[in-house]
Amino acid sequence: MKTFNNNTLKRMNLPFVLLVNFLLLGVVSCEKLELPEEASIADLTPPSASFSAVGTEDFLTYNFSNTSKSATDYVWTFPGGGSSTAVEPTFSFPSVGTYSVSLEATDKLLVSDTYTAQLVIVEPPIPPAINPDVINGDFSNGQDNWKVSTFTGGTTSPYNSSSDGENLNYDGSDNGSKTPGAKWTSSTSAGPNLSGSTRFAYQAHTVSPGREYYIEFSYAIKTGGSGLDSTGDRLVVEMLSGHFSDGADALASSQASPLTQIVSTAILGKGNFTLVKQTFTAPESGLVAIWMYGITSVDSYIDNVKLYPVD
After folding, report:
1. 102-120 mean pLDDT
2. Residues 174 and 294 in one domain
3. Which of 61, 172, 194, 295 has its CA 20 to 30 A from that of 105?
């Protein structure tokens, strides 16, 4: 029978001892050593935050373009405590002024970079208003440019051409004698005499939406009339909203709600003209039309019609 001494036992148990020691040391080491994540590498491309801003039609509202690199998450900080995590947000500033906007860009390794810019918000200058050209506004070319295309139930003749206009030219200079003008008589009047023979002068224009405009003209009413009704002899100039190919539609707009209506009643006699001008606000469409007619028992005249912006 073979016997074992202590040395023999020690030799036989050495691998087991080493294994136990290794395991024990491993436990101790795990408690003290933080191992890196598997396959992890250093952040070789850290994020770089940047952006640009572009204004919209509303000068207080901006669209932000994110030009950051190597980032996946974003936090925007806007004035007044506003924030966003959108990649490319839109923000409306409260008023004109200088504001600070910041963008923090972060990647998946939680490395971040912040970019801050100062934005100066200003109200853009108001562009000049359209200055329309009233064609044949001095009536030197007879009835040209004052007719509607058609007039259901009426006539397209806008007025009686006349040589009894005022002595002033269209530019305001003194002509030294009468100039051409537009004339209305009792037979071409509206009001109580409204008929298929009533004459309405019409001219369409495009102006700047929402802006203030003047309609200007000179008029004269011959003396000696009895008036067609209790209101007396008068000439009417209106601004209508829209353009009309049929005079009947323009007349309906006139009777419903003109943008402005000027009723001229001074009876100073033939050749004695009175200058009139009145403001109105252009509609959002920018489409307007001059509409003129007489309600008179005697010869009455309009001359030098002008349309121009207040500013």
Report:
1. 97
2. yes
3. 61
